[in-house]
Amino acid sequence: INSVGLLTQEVTLINFAALFIFMILQPIAGALLDKIGRKPLLFWFGIMGTIFTIPIFLTLQQVKTGMGAFLLMLAGLIIVTGYTSINATVKAEMFPTEIRALGVGLPYGLTVAIFGGTVEYVALYLKKINHENLFFVYVTVVVFISLLVYWRMTDTKHTSKLDH
What we know:
Low-confidence stretches: none
CATH architecture: Up-down Bundle
Structural class: mainly alpha
Number of strands: 0
Shape: globular
Number of domains: 1
Distance between the termini: 49 Å
């Protein structure tokens, strides 16, 4: 609405359609978890997110049609599916039962509070001072940092703590 200038009703419909498809993709991508492992899906998110976040956002600024905005939003959501479809399982598999709630809950709560809780304020502030594109860099850097974490971690398909 703020960046592209589409009508609120059109954006609502675009969001609904893209998020509906995103919802359908979750179990499909999650089914890949046991077939190809966790890391390939996480790498998909990390690599594609690092490469395409800025181009998607920059193109979204220029798009003038609802269909263009929908396709760009859907492209972003397809990339994010590599993380969202499996993240809960991967985190749970990393920790033994005795510390699973703390091991999963504390880092999740901190990152959501820090990044999720501030993302709207950061985006709107950067837009207000006419540096909206720095937000795209911010998102890309965070995705790249997650890629470095995935590269260093063991694929929990083979080291799952859920069976212990």
